[in-house]
Amino acid sequence: MRVDGEQGLKSRRLAGGEEVEFEPPPEAQPLEPEEVGLRVAYEDEHLLVVDKPAGVVVHPSPGHASGTLVHGVLTHGAAGGEEERPGIVHRLDRDTSGLLVVARSEEAHGRLKQLVREHALARTYIALVRGRPRSRRGRIEAPIGRDRRDPTRQSLNTENPRDAVTHFELVELIGQQALLRVDLETGRTHQIRVHLASIALPVVGDAVYGVPEPSLGRQFLHATRLGFDHPFTGERVEVESPLPVDLARYLEALR
User: For residue 253, what is the enclosing H or E element?
Assistant: First the structure.
C-alpha cells in the first residue's frame, strides 16, 4: 500500500484526503491434481489414510501454491470441508512425516471431524529427543497458543491458551538422547514439539523449539500409527507406518 506516493505502514491511520494506492493480491488459482509421491496406506469409498513424506505442506498457503498434500490427494478423490483444502481433517507439520486421514465426501468429512472433536482419532508418533526423561512415561497437560512475542511460534506463554494434553513413553535410551512413543489426546499446532521442549526434551532437529541437526535436515518426528472406529461401518481401522529411511538411518548411526 502506498499513501501519497510513499510506502505506507500497516499501522498508519489515515487523516482523510490522502491518495491511497493498493494492489490486490492475485486471485487464488483453482486446485489441480498433482503427483506428490504419497503412499496410500488404507482406502475405501469414504476415506483414505495417506503417508505424508517430510517436506510436504498439507494445504496451499502463501509460498506453497502447489506441490501440497491437498494437490496429491485430489488424484484420490478427496472431498469435503473447505474449498481450498478438500478432505483435510487434521494436519502434520511440513517436516513431520507420517499418517493422515482424508475424507472423500462432505458427509465423511463431517463424521471424521467429529471423531477429532471427541478425541476418538488415536494418533501415535515416534520422536527422538535430546535429554533423558525423568520417568519412563508421563503426561503433559499444559495449554498452548500463539506466543505473546512471536506470532510464528506456539507457546505456553500465550494470551489465547487452548487445552493440550500429550502422553509419552520411553522406548529406548541412546546416550544423552531418548526415543519416545508419543500419543496425542488433543491436536494443537506444534503440540508435541512445544510440550516436549517445555520439559527440557526438545525434538532432535527441531530448529524452532530446539536445536537444528544439519546431518538430519529436519525434526525427528514421525506419525507412525493412526487408529479410529470407521465413521460409517463402526469397524476399527488401525494403520501403521514404519520409520522413513532418513530417520531409520540416523537412528542406526546413533546406535
Answer: helix 245-254
Quote the CA–CA distance of 155 and 147 in Å, as a whole number: 5
> Which residues lie below 8 Å from residue 115, measured CB to CB, with a gap of 6+?
121, 228, 229, 231
* Cell output for 125: 508418533
* 190: its cell numbers: 506444534
**Which of these three, 76, 101, 118, is where a domain ends?**
118
4 domain-assigned = no
The CA–CA distances, whole Å, from 25 to 1, 48, 198, 203, 226 equal: 11, 34, 38, 37, 38
For the chain, how long is the longest CA-to-CA vector? 70
Contact 123, 225 (CB under 8 A): yes
Q: Domain range spanning residue 54?
A: 30-118
Residue 9, in any domain of the structure: no
Q: Is residue 5 part of a domain?
A: no
Q: Both 87 and 148 in a single domain?
A: no
- Other Cβ atoms less than 10 A from the Cβ of 133: the count is 18
Is 93 among the catalytic positions?
yes
Residue with cell 500463539: 146
DSSP state letter for 48 = E
Shared domain check, 139 and 251: yes
Q: Out of 4, 44, 51, 93, which one is annotated catalytic?
A: 93
Give tens-digit pLDDT for 128-177: 999 999 999 999 999 999 999 998 899 999 999 999 999 999 999 999 99
pTM, rounded to two decimals: 0.85
Domain tally for the chain? 2
